[in-house]
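ok trying again, last paste got cut off:
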Amino acid sequence: MQRKGSNQRLSSCSMLLRSRISSLMLSMLATIASFYVAGRLWQDAQNRVYIINELDRITGQGRSAISVDDSLKVIACREQQKKLSALHMELGAARDEGFVSKYYGIDKDKPKKKPLVVIGILTSFGRKNKRDAVRTAWMGKGAGLKKIENEKGIVARFVIGRSENRGDRLDLDIDIEDRQNNDFIVLNDHVETSKQLPKKTMFFFAHVANYWEADFYAKVNDDVYVNIDALGNTLAAHVDTPRVYMGCMKSGEVFSEPNQKWYEPEWWKFGDAKSYFRHASGEIFVISQALAKFVSINRLNLRTYAHDDVSVGSWFIGLDVKHIDERKFCCSAWASGIQLPLFMVLSVWLAMLTRVVGWVWSWAGCGWLGGLWLSVVVGWWVRLVMGVDQGSGVGLFIIPYFRSN
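nice, full thing came through this time. structure:
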């Protein structure tokens, strides 16, 4: 009986000990859990205070309650700001290294000082003779081209796209000519077709606006002969004028029939009167830096029409732009103006005449000296009759045509 009672007391003691240990463990776990929950709540409170303080600092408003959604927006904005700052740093580094957008050709001779005007001479395949005539007449080449850039602040480049069959003979000929003269802007992502001339003009302005910090940017056709001194003087008078759009301003009929030469597929957009708004003629026109930057920024959203001059004019209708009707830009201008259309026509006509005479004289055994003599005589005749110095230059236009035979 005594042994049985001892066993009962031992079992009751062990049960009591186990219950005390279990209670102690539960108390410890509860204490740890309480510290954990309190720590998390304190951390969330600190984050909330930080976010509120940041909002107060940025907005300048007093302390106010903030929702969880607002907190997430603030955090997202901070992340985006970090990414934007990183992109700005990368863009700055790329500009310092001379990288430009892949959408445009790279001109290898960026001038160090700010030019007055960058002239883009829009040309196309198979017009090398036109380009050579421009180089000889007013643009210059090699050291002459650099002299005009450095002394007059006038940069001139031929502008051309790529062939529909990328890398074919047409592209190779342009690359060879560019290596010889170093006076091209090649729009690598533009396909050179006559129907895409408005987009070509847009890509040209976007390229030069990003590459040259000039006061003005001019578009010229490759059959226009420019008096660069007169052009420089005209533009210099408008350097302080904001948002300049200068050219031979005109308007005219919108042709709605497909068989007409200047057919406009979207003729109905120009109203019942079928008349174009006022815009600069496409042979030569000039826009200031602010407008070129506008074209560069919005090039993906700008609408183009069938003709480049109408397209450019449409981009500036809704802007606060100074339209300057410069009559020296018109085809009717005399040689004292910006263009030299009269002497261009005379040069071509006399070149054809000299070639015909040269054939006859060659057939008669007189050789090419007769043609040379004729060109000089005609040049001096134009100088005396017209009363201008450019007359003697007409012979220079003729000689290359004749001596090529």
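cool. The beta strands are 117-122, 154-162, 184-191, 216-221, 244-250, 279-288, 322-325. The two ends are 145 Å apart (CA to CA).
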